[in-house]
Design a protein that fits this description.
With 125 residues, the protein is mainly β. It contains one helix and eleven strands. The strands form two sheets. Strands 2, 4, 5, 6, 9, 10 and 11 form a seven-stranded mixed β-sheet that branches. It starts with a strand and ends with a strand. 34% of the residues are buried.
Length: 125
């Protein structure tokens, strides 16, 4: 499985950004996609996750501001998008998307087997 994440950038507080995650070479019928983030000097944090059944998990810090969605997989490829609204300076971090055949409830507290290279999100006050 290969994972490529894109999007991100710099925005002022209150602004919006959209991240995308494209996974290819998927052979699993059930899996979880989503994002972790890590800011300098801080622990990695699970941000948002979506399973093949459509169930989602969000960190408390991003609920009601971030929305994750996944398109239907096709030919071993799938795409997840993270719409981030009302961004705050504390959302500044490197965001890493990934995919794992385990349930999202497990992945949210561990890590992905397959991850992208990461994309920077910077929110200025």
């Amino acid at each position: 499985v290969q994972v490529v994440d894109a999007g991100g950038g710099s925005v002022q507080s209150g602004g919006s950004l959209r991240l995308s995650c494209v996974a290819s070479g998927i052979t699993y019928g059930v899996y979880c996609m989503g994002w972790f983030r890590q800011a300098p000097g801080k622990k990695r944090e699970g941000v948002a996750f979506v399973g093949t059944d459509g169930r989602t998990i969000y960190a408390d810090s991003v609920k009601d501001r971030f929305t994750i969605a996944k398109v239907a997989p096709k030919d071993g490829m799938d795409t997840a998008n993270l719409q981030m609204n009302n961004l705050k300076p504390e959302d500044t971090a490197m965001y890493y998307c990934g995919l794992d055949p385990l349930d999202c409830s497990i992945i949210a507290t561990t890590s992905f087997d397959y991850s992208g290279q990461g994309t920077q999100v910077t929110v200025s006050s």
